[in-house]
Q: What sequence folds into this?
């Protein structure tokens, strides 16, 4: 099967200097390398979970994949097309097929636009439809996300957080995209509402034949939704594998630490597990060698000098760690 | 009860708003025992934070706090004057807030902020002694290079380290009770477990009690001896954490557990609680969970009291057979 989305050695550096300083040659500490060397393929109909802590680059990677930001290294292919080389009109056409759902349902909806305007905007931009047809498709989409025609004239402030996220989902799906980046779509919601939205995303995926990149910092949420999980640390993917085996048999020491840190209701109180010490290093001056070696309980001399290459382990995980044997 | 550190009886906190009277806390009874960790869990707007702001006397007018009694070490906090309450707050009962970046003063060094707390409660303490204690506290909460970091400002610390600084300030006077309000919500999970470990260690070391306010039942299950589940301003279930998590009796607690994605049960589909929390200005005298409850019966249409299930366990539900 050919991948719907493929990244080839994708990276993104941000220049932190201002104004004329940018004309000077690069010097250390002036660039943040938010994403580096990412090779990922997302198959049609698949949900790929992307997990990492704040600053790991997961949201930036989501935006690079949609070409909302252009990568500074590597290329993104959508349905076999390199997004960096296609003409602007073609990109506009492709945009209908790739959409994004944002984290904050309060900040991502224009407070001065009615639900009808918010959800219908994509149709007005991309489709030649009559006002009636636009309204019909808008209502149809609202009904799919559990809202309805009665909500068309209302404004975002009249809705709860969960309902706003439903509006954001309707906006993303009204053009019938094939690929959707869900960027922490449930992180701002209370747990009972979070489960409603997770279930809704699952139903929509089934009914509309969607492919998801699901970005979250919550491993339990990602594990419930994803077919495969990719784990990011300091801009790089450190492990990719089937969701179940990432959760039950993680290979990378960082994935293990992340799993151990998730609070669970099925552990005895006071049960202590291995903890990661320290904070993640700054991406302004990432450590040499393996970026995780400063916090890794198994760090060896080689980890401080050589960045581990990606290798395929016996269980099918792709892992970037010197401890893992290539098969 | 004499073996209680803190006993809250009949607490009601209301806020008048344009849309009507918000009953944020509506008849809460809670106990905190010496040395224990009590988890208070609930979703946004359940009243969990306001309950403890009320206990501390930090609810500002026009907010109004009523209570039969708020007993702390034999004294009724609710009947104390502001000065007497202030003397207890910070010394015997300390608080850490959710967001350390806004809770700490950005214009003062960490040293100033810790020493200020000590001086407020131990007037006349020598500056050098205050500084020595501040260094000791920073060391205690695991901040490396404490002596040098003392002169740093809050923005110079990472999120996890800032939370530690706040814990250091809270614990500077060796309180008997620490109220930790969502201490790790803004933090990444690997940092979260460090901060929760720290609070656990401090509890053991100082022999204090901890009230951990959180929306995360996983944190409660791992850290707390007992739990109180709040919904729409009321406590709907209390008991030893292990029992409540293993066999919840209130339909809301059951729903909360079923809607939590769990790493242990990946195959079980999530079951959301349908509907939304009631409007706090239009709370009925019926069971507040009634509109969302899958087991609702006619009997639910009247005020429901907490019913005792067994020693130390209670639930606010008609389906619970009250033990004699």
A:
């Amino acid at each position: 099967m050919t991948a719907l989305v493929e990244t080839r050695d994708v990276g993104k550096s941000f220049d932190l200097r201002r104004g004329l300083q940018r004309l000077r040659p690069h010097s250390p500490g002036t660039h943040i390398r938010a994403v580096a060397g990412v090779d990922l393929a997302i198959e049609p109909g698949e949900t790929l979970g992307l997990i990492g802590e704040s600053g790991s680059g997961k949201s930036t990677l989501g935006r690079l994949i949609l070409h909302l930001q252009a990568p500074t290294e590597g290329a993104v292919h959508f349905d076999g097309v390199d997004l960096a080389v296609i003409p602007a009109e073609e990109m506009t056409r492709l945009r209908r097929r790739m959409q994004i759902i944002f984290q904050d349902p309060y900040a991502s909806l224009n407070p001065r636009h009615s639900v009808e305007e918010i959800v219908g905007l994509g149709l007005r931009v991309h489709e030649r439809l009559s006002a009636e047809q636009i309204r019909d498709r808008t209502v149809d989409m609202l009904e799919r996300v559990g809202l309805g025609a009665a909500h068309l004239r209302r404004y975002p402030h009249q809705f709860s957080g969960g309902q706003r996220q439903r509006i954001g989902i309707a906006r993303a799906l009204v053009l019938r995209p094939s690929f959707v980046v869900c960027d922490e779509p449930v992180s701002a919601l209370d747990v009972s509402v979070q489960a409603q939205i997770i279930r809704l995303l699952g139903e929509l995926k089934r009914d509309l034949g969607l492919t998801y990149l699901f970005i979250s910092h919550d491993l339990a949420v990602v594990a419930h939704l994803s077919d495969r999980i990719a784990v990011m640390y300091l801009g790089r993917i450190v492990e990719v594998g089937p969701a179940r085996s990432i959760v039950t048999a993680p290979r990378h020491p960082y994935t293990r630490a992340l799993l151990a840190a998730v609070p669970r209701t099925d552990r005895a109180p006071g049960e202590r597990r291995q903890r990661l010490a320290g904070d993640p290093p700054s991406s302004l001056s990432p450590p040499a060698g393996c970026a995780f070696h400063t916090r890794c309980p198994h760090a060896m001399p080689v980890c401080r000098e050589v960045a581990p290459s990606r290798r395929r382990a016996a269980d099918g995980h792709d892992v970037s760690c010197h401890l893992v044997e290539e098969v | 009860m004499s073996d209680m550190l803190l006993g809250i009886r009949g607490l009601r906190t209301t806020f008048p708003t344009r849309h009507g009277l918000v009953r944020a806390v509506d008849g809460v009874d809670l106990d905190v025992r010496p040395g224990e960790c009590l988890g208070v869990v609930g979703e946004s707007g359940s009243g969990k934070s306001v309950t403890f702001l009320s206990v501390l006397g930090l609810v500002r007018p026009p907010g109004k706090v009523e209570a039969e009694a708020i007993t702390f070490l034999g004294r009724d906090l609710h009947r104390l004057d502001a000065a007497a309450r202030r003397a207890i707050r910070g010394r015997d009962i300390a608080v850490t807030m959710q967001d350390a970046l806004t809770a700490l003063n950005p214009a003062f060094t960490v040293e100033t902020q810790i020493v200020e707390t000590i001086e407020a409660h131990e007037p006349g303490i020598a500056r050098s002694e205050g500084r020595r204690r501040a260094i000791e506290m920073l060391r205690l909460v695991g901040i490396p290079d404490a002596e040098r970091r003392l002169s740093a400002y809050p923005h110079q610390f990472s999120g996890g380290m800032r939370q530690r600084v706040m814990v250091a300030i809270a614990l500077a006077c060796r309180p008997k009770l620490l109220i930790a309000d969502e201490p790790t919500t803004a933090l990444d999970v690997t940092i979260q477990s460090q901060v929760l470990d720290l609070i656990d260690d401090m509890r053991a070391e100082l022999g204090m009690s901890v009230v951990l306010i959180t929306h995360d039942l996983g944190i409660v299950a791992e850290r707390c001896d007992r739990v109180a589940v709040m919904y729409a301003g009321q406590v709907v279930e209390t008991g030893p954490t292990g029992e409540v998590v293993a066999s919840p009796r209130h339909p809301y607690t059951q729903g909360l557990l079923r809607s939590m994605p769990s790493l242990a049960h990946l195959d079980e589909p999530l079951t959301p609680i349908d509907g939304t929390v009631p409007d706090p200005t239009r709370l009925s005298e019926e069971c507040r969970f009634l509109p969302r409850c899958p087991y609702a019966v006619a009997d639910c249409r009247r005020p429901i009291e907490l019913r005792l299930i067994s020693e130390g366990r209670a639930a606010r539900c008609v389906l619970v057979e009250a033990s004699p």
Summary: Chain B has a mean pLDDT of 90. The two ends of chain B are 21 Å apart (CA to CA). Chain B touches chain A through 45 residues (CB under 8 Å).
